[in-house]
From TrEMBL:
SMART domains for the chain: ANK
Keyword annotations: ANK repeat, Repeat
Name listed for the protein in its UniProt record: Uncharacterized protein LOC111105273 isoform X5
GO CC terms of this entry: cytosol
Membrane-spanning residues: none
The keyword Repeat appears for this protein: yes
GO molecular function, one term: NF-kappaB binding
Record InterPro entries: Ankyrin_rpt, Ankyrin_rpt-contain_sf, NF-kappa-B_inhibitor
Species name: Crassostrea virginica (Eastern oyster)
DNA repair recorded as keyword: no
Length: 431
């Protein structure tokens, strides 16, 4: 039996299948004398339904359990509980079924790892795709090594190429999961110093499932490309709408220590919040709120190399005759003010910001930064221009500022604005 090094792939999985069958038979025997008969039945049914799915890490313990079950030196009731079952805590747990169910969910991701026939053809197809004509050897170990070590002229690994391809999100994520399970590094970089995760947030094809898969392998979030941008910078400047970017953010922010990198600066001293504030193609209201909710207090006041804050950048970047762009600019400014920013009327920079603003509505908000009623009235007046009736029953769960000082009606207006803008391109909107 030939094993692919560091991958756990076998050319013949007959013994694995028979191992599963032996486990089912052993658990049937065990059920007659074990106190937790119901839980043993759950285990047996699970092995039957997910055959074969035993992970490489569990193979030794499973075989040890089989040897323990099938030997006939002592009666079954007097034998010591094997290590495999002790790890499942069957003897003490009050919720054994829940523990087993949770482990099945974790192990289910490894089904492809044990389905050698599928893995072999997956690797073979990858080789043919990477080399445009196949590979000289059809030995699994050689094919696997070629796929894992491959780099193109720009330093892209197989992971990068899969992410940048036109494969569906589901197919790409499944393939990447298999490669990462087989030992590929999740933090490989190309010549632009971009990791697979950084590349995924920039793709024109949605890569939500790919990002979820990559995050399961704890990628390093501090990595920066040649321009000093990390994954949060790239996500805020990507070609996605606000809703998609917010979904990406929510996934990545669950990573270990993720919030610490929200204040990272690129070569222009811009933070991810600055990038979001400057975005002119798509709305970024929801993303801005997520960044402010998860970042530090001084994030709102940070400036770039031109001494411009996120508030300054939002006002000066969004221009045009479209009422939707006016709405986007108004809401961005309101959000920054609600989170504690304040235009310094004595500052020449802020005076220039107000002067450069194209919209009287935004100028009014900046000149009255604590007048919540004025903010609400301005948003409602923009709704009138768009022939949209203000909604008072809209879901405000996506609006993070839940302070009791903020009136519910203003939060409704912000939430309604987010609904109107979340999937629109600002640069092509016609009123």
């Amino acid at each position: 039996m030939v094993k692919f090094s560091n991958c756990g792939l076998y050319e013949d999985d007959t013994d694995i299948y028979s191992t599963c069958q032996d486990v089912v038979q052993s658990l049937t025997m065990l059920g007659d004398s074990f106190s937790h008969k119901k839980e043993v039945h759950v285990m047996r049914r699970g092995f039957q339904n997910v055959m074969p799915f035993i992970s490489l890490q569990k193979r030794t313990d499973i075989k040890g359990a089989i040897n323990w079950f099938t030997r006939e030196k002592k009666p079954l009731v007097k034998r010591k509980i094997p290590q495999t079952l002790m790890k499942w805590n069957l003897g003490k747990s009050k919720n054994v079924s829940g523990i087993i169910s949770k482990r099945y969910k974790i192990m289910y991701r490894r089904i492809l790892k044990m389905n050698t026939f599928s893995d072999y053809h997956l690797y073979l197809s990858l080789v043919e795709e990477l080399k445009n004509g196949g590979h000289g050897s059809y030995n699994l170990e050689d094919i696997g090594r070629y796929v894992h070590d491959f780099r193109d002229d720009e330093g892209n690994s197989t992971l990068h190429i899969i992410i940048a391809s036109d494969k569906s999100d589901l197919l790409a994520s499944s393939t990447i999961d298999t490669l990462l399970l087989d030992g590929m590094s999740v933090d490989l970089t190309n010549t632009n110093n971009m990791t697979p995760l950084m590349l995924a947030v920039k793709q024109s094809i949605p890569r939500k499932k790919v990002i979820k898969t990559i995050m399961m392998y704890s990628p390093k979030l501090h990595c920066k490309d040649v321009k000093g941008s990390n994954v949060f910078h790239l996500c805020m400047g990507s070609c996605y709408d606000d809703e998609t970017c917010a979904d990406y953010l929510n996934i990545i922010l669950k990573g270990k220590g993720a919030k610490a990198y929200l204040i990272s600066r690129d070569t222009n001293k811009d933070t991810p919040l600055h990038i979001a504030a400057m975005e002119t193609t798509y709305s970024r209201i929801h993303c801005i709120m997520l960044l402010l909710e998860n970042g530090t207090r001084n994030m709102i006041k940070s400036t770039n190399e031109d001494w411009l804050s996120s508030l300054n950048l939002a006002v000066t970047s969004l221009k045009g005759k479209s009422t939707y762009v006016e709405l986007e600019c108004s809401v961005r400014v309101i959000v920054f003010l609600l989170y504690g920013d304040y235009p310094d009327t004595d500052s020449e920079t802020n005076d220039n910001t107000i002067d450069e603003c194209e919209y009287d509505s935004v100028k009014s908000i900046l000149r009255n930064p604590r007048d919540l009623e004025n903010m609400e009235n301005i948003l409602k007046s923009i709704f009138v221009k768009l022939n949209v009736c203000p909604s008072y029953n809209i879901d405000c769960s996506a609006v993070p500022p839940s302070s009791s000082k903020i009136r519910r009606s203003l939060m409704n207006c912000i939430a309604q604005s987010m609904q109107l803008l979340k999937n629109r391109r600002l640069d092509t909107i016609q009123d």
